[in-house]
């Protein structure tokens, strides 16, 4: 059982997969497409990765505005969520992805990756941050629940 994290962009989808213990997230790839509205090949590749990694759940980044409203990109992400659920039959959880791209860019700067090369990696790293945030929340909720059971 693994969880997939996705960073859905206008022409790319960053993909991350959890380890089998659901503790860590690893970037897997960036799915690229020429046209923003052509999602058939993107969805087919996601299905292949779901099968390959035995994914049972998907976490999709929700790009909210800083004032907590939903803009055009967020609406497109919600539409993509529906397509994913219909096509894969898996539950898709939305995850507030504000500042994940900024964090990914900062991590690459700290790692010494040159600016002109960062575009090659940013979506995969952002997907990793989205998934890791979700995994961390699950772990914390489990710890809190276990603590309550011991009282």
In CATH, the architecture is: 2-Layer Sandwich
Give the termini separation: 30 Å
Helix/strand order, N-terminal first: EEEHEHEHHH
Low-confidence stretches: none
Strand content: 15-25%
Helix/strand structural class: alpha/beta
Give the helix tally: 5
Mean pLDDT across all residues, rounded?
87
Which CATH C-level class is it? Alpha Beta
Could you state the CATH homologous superfamily?
Answer: YqgF/RNase H-like domain
| Total count of strands | 5
Largest sheet properties: 5 strands, mixed
The 3D shape can be described as: globular
Count of discrete structural domains: 1
Q: Remind me, CATH topology?
A: Nucleotidyltransferase, domain 5
Q: Assign a percent range to the helix content.
A: 40-55%
In quaternary terms, these chains amount to single chain
The rounded Rg comes to 16 Å
Query: How do the strands line up in the largest sheet?
Result: 3-2-1-4-5
Description:
By secondary structure, the protein is an alpha/beta fold. It has one domain: Nucleotidyltransferase, domain 5 (2-Layer Sandwich), CATH 3.30.420.140. Helix content is 49%, strand content 23%. Strand 4 (55-62), helix 2 and strand 5 (92-96) form a beta-alpha-beta unit. The two termini are 30 Å apart. The model has no long low-confidence stretch (mean pLDDT 87).
In short:
The protein is an alpha/beta fold and 151 residues long. The protein is 49% helix and 23% strand.
List keywords for this structure.
Nucleotidyltransferase, domain 5, 5 helices, alpha/beta, 151 residues, globular
